[in-house]
Amino acid sequence: MNNKKNKVKIGIISPANSITGEKSKKMFNEGVKKLEEVGFDVIVGKNVFSNTYNGYCGSIEEKINDLYDIASKAKYIICSTGGINSNVLLSNIDYKKIENNIFIGNSNPTLLFNAFYEEAKITSYIGPNVKSLGKMNNSFSLDCLKEKLIEDNKTIKTEKEIIIIKKGNAKGIAIGGNIQSLRRILGTKYFPKLKDYILYIEASPDETNMTEYESIISQLEQANILKYAKGIILGYYDDNIKFYKQIYNRYNVPIVVCNNLGHNINNNMLPIGKEIIINNDKIMEV
């Protein structure tokens, strides 16, 4: 008997970097194994490991082919890992071919998720990628993924209490993500054109030092991205709450820190393109 028949299908693509090197492949394979163990029928894109482009990722054609192929086989699509250059795909995508899919991942692919919403109102989740699932030491991210996709649970779980930078309540469509990645679509037609949204902001301390972080936030402010945010959800940044208060003190909207949003942490599942609520120390999906 085929026990895959009633399992939820989830496909894997590499829209930014590919899985290359033995260490990464080991973590990826462990991530696939964990997905299968909790009840997913996993479909791996044939170009997930491609290194035809400069040794670290597949070509645009290979990435697009995987995107369409996996989209036709599974509603849910999770990214294998993060990376650098997923924005090269944007002008090559036929968005009608993926309009019924839901995407999951973090880091560089979050720019895709924002573009997907702007172009076709596609829902995505800032969550774990497959490699991070294989790397993690506990089941938190895997549980969040399973509860959202298999059990359709609208709860947004956190391991630690939400930290309040500025008190208040806010409601809006959620957009945003990794700031190094978002700036790659800033000023383009792919950045969501909304008012009254909730904005996610996260950066890796290893990739974005405090000076650059502040510079990018100023860039977002000058581009009026912060002007229309009804609330801001900040990700983990080396537990540097003092720095956050220094940067965000001038913004008069609810601002909270979610330590399950970011790099090298256990990601939960935060929607992009869906309405959420900030209620002081709670974040809820509507």
Structure, described:
The strands form two sheets. The protein has a seven-stranded mixed beta sheet with strand order 6-10-9-8-7-12-13. A six-stranded mixed beta sheet has the order 2-1-3-4-5-11. It contains eight helices and 13 strands. The mean pLDDT is 96. Helices cover 29% and strands 22% of the residues. The chain is of the alpha/beta class. It has two domains: 8-149, Murein tetrapeptidase LD-carboxypeptidase, N-terminal domain (Rossmann fold, 3-Layer(aba) Sandwich); 163-285, 3-Layer(bba) Sandwich (Glucose Oxidase, domain 1), CATH 3.50.30.60. The protein has helices spanning 22-37, 60-73, 109-120, 130-135, 140-149, 179-182, 210-222, 241-248; strands spanning 8-13, 40-44, 76-79, 102-105, 124-126, 163-166, 169-178, 197-202, 229-234, 255-257, 270-272, 275-279, 282-285. The protein starts with 7 loop residues before the first strand and ends with a strand.
